[in-house]
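Chapter summary example: a protein plus calcium ion.
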Amino acid sequence: MRPLKIAILLTVACVATCASTQAASKGKPNILFIVGDDMGYSDVGFNGCKDIPTPNLDALAKSGVRFTSGYVSAPYCSPSRSGMLTGRYQQRYGHEFNPTGTQGLPTNQVTIANRLKNVGYHTGLVGKWHEGSEPHMQPQARGFDDFFGFLGGSHSYFKYNGMLRGTQPVSGEEYFTDAFGREACSYIENNKDKPWFLYLAFNAVHTPMDATDDRLKKFTSIEDKKRRTYAAMMYAMDENIGRVLNKLEETGQTENTYVIFFSDNGGPVMPSTTMNASHNTPLRGGKRTTLEGGIRVPFVVSWKNHIKPGVYNNMAITLDMTATALDIAGAETKNLDGVNLLPYLTGDNRGIPHGILFWRFGDQMAIRLGDYKLVRYDENADTLVGKKLPAIGPFLYNLKDDIGETKDLSKKMPGKVKELQTKWDEWNKTLMKPLWWAGPGDSDGDPKQTQPKKKKKKKEPSDV
Ligand SMILES: [Ca+2]
């Protein structure tokens, strides 16, 4: 075939494809996922926080639905974010623990970015990835058109070593949380004429405890230095969420944007975790446990004029946020564990999204059936010895009467224990063995360990 003819055919094919993509994407809502890192359950105003103002998050919650039983699928960073990205329980594909070295979100899984891109969305990630640092596992190999951020699980908020735009290093001096807010605003402005998906993945308020002086000065009344720094870090994230929501308003996109917010796990309050002075009150336990403090998180869905503002008390999980987004975008929804929440929030469906939810994290487990929860958890949550201990239990709690998991009912209600254990065992049979295990020094994303192509030279501390 002659070159001119090939060129004409290619042009015709491209025009046809572009036209079909444009037609498929016309009128679709934008999708904005905002994720906080290691936030305490009660460290936002809408969950009762008194010493740290979060006016912008509170406004977001007020504009939409605040969930009182909103859960993540894992009690720490990478697997929790992985479940959200695929809309599936991450133990189904072996991603039960944080990756190190060449590990990452298995490439046989499709992400929400892949699925949305297939129906004409422009896709972007700003912030923390933590799903693999190898070239074939980086954001732009997993469905994201744009990427600005870092690949590991945590990072200094001031040092740009490891910050990337696409695959290229970026230098700068701006505080990371501000840089992420600015980048998110640019993304929203630049893509206003087409449907877009933005995963705004803050590393705030994960360690290291880095804050700007101007914000620290606002919290001199907080005596505990770590809590003061945490407050300044939270305030910075809240400010930047405000900038992003304002940008939606300025560009006339608020009514056409489905927004969600959650923290990727509960506040780390147990020695040997990345303790940041967060509070999970009234929940017990925290990050790295299957107690409520590890898995029940601040959780908001907002879509102006589509979702009536309110409070939702039935169980939901982050996998649902993904399923909802895919459904409203007209994207493929096969093989998901999440369900579309919209019919439940609008009242079109008077049932409940989930009668039952499950967790597995090594030898820890949990199942919630209605108000009852059966749980095995790391004994370090009780002993606070500062190292992982074998899981103890099972214990049975009625969360309706006992949200703090203080009154074990397992001896009084052996039938309920058996019922929940049997259901959990059935679910467990559908899971894979983990593709990798948490290492003895699982440092939860220490930047020294997760920089691309940088080999670990010495044992990392477990509390970074
Ligand atoms: Ca986290």
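Key point: The radius of gyration is 22 Å.
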